[in-house]
Amino acid sequence: MTATPAYGATAPDSGVNPLTIERRELRGEDVAIDIAFCGVCHSDLHAARNDWGRTNYPFVPGHEIVGTVSAVGSGVTRFKVGDRVAVGTTIDSCRKCDACADGEENYCREGSTGTYNGKDRIDGSPTFGGYSKAIVVAEPFVLRVPDGLDMAAAAPLLCAGITTYSPLKNWNVGPGTRVGVIGLGGLGHMGVKFAKALGAEVTMITTSPEKGAGAVRLGADHVLVSTDKAAMRAASRSFDFLLDTVPVKHDVTPYLFLLDRKGTLCIVGMIELMEPFHSGLLLQGQKAVSGSGVGGIAQTQEMLDLCAAKGIGAEIEVIPMDQINHAFERMEQADVRYRFVIDMETL
Q1: Does domain 2-159+295-346 match CATH 3.30.70.1150?
Q2: Which of 14, 143, 169, 318 is deepest in the core (most CB within 10 A)?
Q3: What's the predicted TM-score (pTM) here?
Q4: SS3 of 265, please?
C-alpha cells in the first residue's frame, strides 16, 4: 500500500480536510495516475454530508478526475507512462452481465463500483475519490484524454458532461430534433453545448432571463422563460426532447405541456421523490417521463473524442484544494459559472 495525501470528510459535519489514505500496489491490469485536476460535483457535497444516508467515513470525494499515467501493471496494453488519462464515476463492475456486455457498466446488474464510497471487488477495501494526489484504477475503466482537450476543462466532462451527453445520444438527438434544456447550471450548460454540437435546435428553459442570455452565448438558439405564462402557452407541443437538469425537487407538469406527440422529458438532475403529475398529460400524445444516469466507458470516450474534435469543454472556475469547503458553500448558493475544478498541484 502507498500512503497518499488527500482531502476528505470524517463525519457529516466535519467538512473536507487534509488526511492520508492508502492506495493499493499495482495489480496486473492497473494504471496508476497522478491527478492533475478534479472537478467538484454536487454529489461530492451530498455524499460528504451523508445527505443520502449511505456514506462510509473516512470519505474522499471526487469522480471527475484527469491526470497522467505514472505507472502501469504488467498486463496493461493501452496506456503507458506519461499518457493523459481520465477517470469518471465508475471504476469497476462485474464485467459479465448484459449491461456490462452492452458497454453500460454504470448499470451493472451486480452494481457498479463507485470511484468513491464503494468497495474494491477483489479485496473489499474502500474506494477513495479524486480529491487526492494519485489513484489506481483497472485499465478497462481508464479513459484517454485526447490531445488538444484542456485538462482542467475536461474534468467536469467525466460526470456533468457524460450525464447530459448520454441521454441526448440514447434518445437519438440530432439534426431536426427540437430540444429544450431545463436549467442552466453545471449540467445544463453542458446539455446546451452537446445538443447544439449534435445538430439539434436548442432552447434554454429557465426562470432567469439573465441565465438565458448566458445560454445563448453557449450556443442556444432560443430562450424560454418558464415564469412567463404566455410564452409557455405559446410553446405548447413544440419540443421533441426535454433535458431536465434541475437538481432540486420541482414540478414537471408545466414542462409536460411543452412536449410534442411522442416527446420525452428526461430527468438527469433531480434525485428524490417527485411532485405528482396527471397521467393524462402523458396519455394525450404518447409522451414519456424518463431518467438517465452517467454513460458507460465507451460512450464516455466517444464524448471526450467529440469534445476534442469540436472544441467543447466545461465552463470552469479553478480553485486551490484548501478552498473546497468555501466552494461547497458557494455551490449551494449557485454561485459558480458553471463548475468548480480543483488544481491538485495545490494539495
Answers
A1: no
A2: 143
A3: 0.96
A4: strand
